[in-house]
Amino acid sequence: MYWIEFMTVALVHLLAVASPGPDFAVVVRESVTQGRRVGSWTALGVGCGIFVHVAYSLLGIGLIVSQSIVLFNLFKWLAAGYLLYLGWRALRARPMNLDVTDETHARAGRSAWQAFAVGFVTNGLNPKATLFFLSLFTVVISPDTPLLVQAGYGVYLAGATALWFLLVAWLFSRGRVRAGFARMGHWFDRLTGAVLIGLGVRLAVSEIG
């Protein structure tokens, strides 16, 4: 009965998740610099971050936040600040020698929990994701759709997001790919740092609130 609605949700989500943004930049950096395990945990964190957006959309909290300029701008500044923090850390990262012969193990210094937290917070604090999910649950999904079915959509969205970024982590943690980035030396960290800072600044000055 809800297959057409589900397919619409899946298609809209596919177009959104495939668009490069903070989640993509963070997963790529973790995968290239720290290996597949850390990149995969970061991807899982991003996927679980979707549950934050689904939860407040179902509870109606997101609508309240989106209609409050103060709350939404506070949310936006927290997200921008976190991206700037990640970017600054990347710019200050020490030069490293990537072990491209080992695609599975991460370099010392980043635990699975830390990698998961980076992905979770990056996605969970993204106010553009807030607007996306509010639109999804108010425009695409009918208010007559049972709450349990909507929750099922949320589980799918989280799983699909995690799978997409697990694929990204797998691709960018392959030996040849990491070797290519390794030839860039310290410039890869600087490049990703600049990208994250750029995303943070763009978010901070945007008029989405």
From TrEMBL:
Q: Which domain of life is it from?
A: Bacteria
GO MF entry, a single one = amino acid transmembrane transporter activity
Q: Which organism is it from?
A: Pseudomonas songnenensis
Please report a single Pfam family linked to this protein: LysE
Tell me which UniProt keywords the record has, alphabetically: Cell membrane, Membrane, Transmembrane, Transmembrane helix
Intracellular or extracellular location(s)? Cell membrane
- Please provide, in alphabetical order, the Gene Ontology terms of the cellular component aspect for this entry: plasma membrane
TM ranges: 41-63, 70-88, 153-173
The main place the protein resides is membrane
Is Transmembrane among this UniProt entry's keywords? Answer: yes
Q: How does it sit in the membrane?
A: Multi-pass membrane protein
Protein's name in the database: LysE family translocator
InterPro entries reported in the protein's UniProt record: LeuE-type (IPR001123)
